[in-house]
Amino acid sequence: MKKINFTALVVVILQCSLSYASSPPPKKYTPVSRTHTFKEEATDIGVIYLAQWVLYPITQYDVFSKIQGKDWVENVFEKGAVLWDGDEWYWNFAGHPLAGSEYYLYFRSRGYTPKWSFVGSLISSTIWEELTETFTEPFSTNDFVVTPVLGSLLGYGREKAALRLLQTDNKFYRGVGHVLWIETNFKFFEKVEVIPAISPDGSAGGISFVAVY
User: Fold this and answer.
1) How far, in Å, CA of 63 to CA of 117, rounded?
2) What is d(CA 46, CA 2) in angstroms, rounded to the nearest whole number?
3) Fewer beta carbons within 10 angstroms: which end of the chain, N or C?
4) pLDDT value for 17
């Protein structure tokens, strides 16, 4: 059975959310929906694939350390797929939906519509199940379904909650918003605007947030 390195995972999340700790100027986070070139789509899928290999040893080092090339061939071409993998409940009903929500939010942050963000989550889940995790275990049908479906629903909810929190002038709430939608901490997020301060006398101070999505 898999064992998750919770300490390493918490460190990664905290490091990703450090950008708000220094009290950055208020910003307006406005997710956009636009068309993408094939090169952009391929690049985003590549980023996800690379991220999977970076996070795999961080969250599951014991499993990752046992990877062998011959196991991938056996799991893909001999064992095929299993209907239910029998992993711990927190992997099947927490870990995979959380991963799916991250896939969804990454594509949303890159300007994909909710529909295409779901498709991106589905493709990312397929890559994980077929090209990454199959080095250690066969394709898992339940994970393949749960990851994009429940993950996109969770991602949609996280997006809405994060945007509401990011629209406040409360630093703590904005910090929570940045943790809920980690991609808002990075420059590749589309679209972020610094909001000019408006004071009571009309010159400085005060905050006004508008989110369009």
Assistant:
1) 29
2) 25
3) N
4) 53
Is the preceding peptide bond at 191 cis, omega within 30 degrees of 0?
yes
Are 184 and 166 in contact by the 8 Å Cβ rule? The answer is yes
Residue 63's pLDDT is: 86
Q: 20 CB contacts (<8 Å, ≥6 apart)?
A: 171, 174, 175, 178, 185
- Position 160 scores a pLDDT of 95
Query: Which H or E run includes 66?
Result: none
**CA distance linking residue 108 with residue 105, whole number of Å:** 5
Block means of pLDDT (10 residues each) for the chain, length 213 residues? Answer: 58 53 65 92 97 92 87 87 82 92 97 96 96 91 94 97 91 94 92 59 41 40
pTM listed for this prediction? 0.78
Cα distances (Å, whole numbers) of residue 180 to 13, 152, 211: 10, 14, 16
Closest CA to 79 of 129, 151, 14: 129
Domain boundaries, the chain: 6-194
Partners of 206 in the β-ladder: none
- Cα dihedral 106, 109, 111, 115 sign: positive
Q: Which residue has the tokens 């590549």?
A: 46
β-pairing, 139-140 vs 81-82, is parallel
